[in-house]
Amino acid sequence: MCKGNQIIGLPVIAVDRGVEVEQVKDLVVDRAHKRVVALLVEKGGWFGAPARVLPLRDVQAFGEDAVMVRSSEAIVEAGKVADIQEALDRHLRLKGTKLISSEGRELGTIRDIDFDPRTGDVKSFEVSRGVLADMISGRSVVSASDDAVVGDDAVVVSADAAAEITQNDAGQSEAETAGAEPKTGSGGLKKALRTAGDFTREGAKEVQKVVVELMDGAQEKADEMCDVAVQAIGELRITRALGRPVDHDIRDSHGSAILREGEVVTMPAVEIARKANVLDELLHAARHKPPPEPAKEPAGGPEKSEGNDARKN
Predict the structure, then answer these.
(1) Which of 54-68, 201-215, 287-301 has the highest mean pLDDT?
(2) Cα separation, 92 vs 33, whole angstroms
(3) 64: Cβ contacts below 8 Å, ≥ 6 apart
(4) What is the pTM of this model?
(5) What is the DSSP string of the chain?
(6) How far apart are CA 54 and CA 38, in angstroms?
(7) What is the rounded CA–CA span in Å between residue 167 and residue 183?
(8) What is the pLDDT of residue 194?
(9) What is the pLDDT of residue 292?
(10) Given this model, what pLDDT does residue 157 score?
(11) In sequence order, what are the beta bridge partners of 40?
(12) What is the Cα–Cα distance from 138 to 181, expressed in whole angstroms?
């Protein structure tokens, strides 16, 4: 089975060239048959650009880290495949849709789906009943039975399917007593507390792994922000240096002059200095403001007063 949330965001790799050709943006679901018919890779809309999709039948494999296709030719315009375009026109998004029983009882909100990667058939819905309930008991999984109806405002399931949530809740304490895992979709606080209280060596390794992954993710984000800041500062230094004279000769590793003392900084000089690894020296040499231009004398030389002319006469 494939989980929809795990597929969205994966790169699409063409096997024949070994290159990433697209990225999965969303799933295209045929509501009448409760089936994933394609992966949306380009939403379209900009300047009339058509939406582009990867039909499910052309997917070679769903991997943990990528979706594999034979070639980039598998990606087509949605308008060229009638059933896919029709599904797109209906703008069906199961994620965030209410799940209601045929008896009129609201069961929660759909947060994910499980589907068969070969046929695309939606097999079950992962249902959230709120943040607190999810933390305590985890999310529930409800079968997408044949009589389930997918509408614009809600997904309606049979009373038997709805009963699965109640059975999961009732079986929670029984499963804990017997030492088995409860049948919920995403664990929950009770499972986390049991794991934390186990104090086994295997449990400690799992906790350590999670902590390391979190720290690595935070460090990676911090490094990205630092790189952006350094780049912005560098661009600001270049902007301030443009048009200013350097206070000494700037030369490359071969001794060739890039700028001589007194010459002003230009973008071509900046690019040459960057390639020669002397850009920092160039920007430092141009840190001073250019000297003020000398005052120009008015045309015709200095003015003479009439009184001075009269005394000379």
Answers:
(1) 54-68
(2) 13
(3) none
(4) 0.51
(5) -EEHHHHTTPEEEETTTTEEEEE--EEEEETTTTEEEEEEEE---GGGPPPEEEEGGGEEEE-SS-EEES-GGG-EEGGGSHHHHHHHHTT---TT-EEEETTS-EEEEEEEEEE-TTT-BEEEEEEE--HHHHHHH--EEEE--TT-EE-SSEEEE-HHHHHHHHHHHHHHHHHHHHTPPPS-SS--HHHHHHHHTT--HHHHHHHHHHHHHHHHHHHHHHHHHHHHHHHHHHHHHHHHHBTPBPSS-EE-TTS-EEE-TTPBB-HHHHHHHHHTT-HHHHHHHT-SPPPPPPPPPPTTSS---HHHHHHH-
(6) 5
(7) 9
(8) 53
(9) 52
(10) 86
(11) 26, 53
(12) 12
pLDDT at 204: 58
- The band of 310, judged by pLDDT with boundaries at 50, 70 and 90, is very low
The fold for domain 2-89 equals Photosynthetic Reaction Center; Chain H, domain 2 (3.90.50)
| Sequence-separated contacts (24+) of 44-48 with Cβ below 8 Å | 44/78
CATH class (in words) of the domain with range 98-193: mainly beta
Banded model confidence at residue 298, pLDDT cuts 50, 70, 90: low
Domain ranges of the chain: 2-89, 98-193, 242-285
Between the alpha carbon of residue 285 and those of residues 115, 237, 254, the distances in Å are 63, 12, 19
Nearest CA among 33, 74, 43 for reference residue 57 = 74
Distance CA 169, CA 221 (A): 39
In degrees and rounded to multiples of 5, residue 249 shows phi and psi of -65, 140
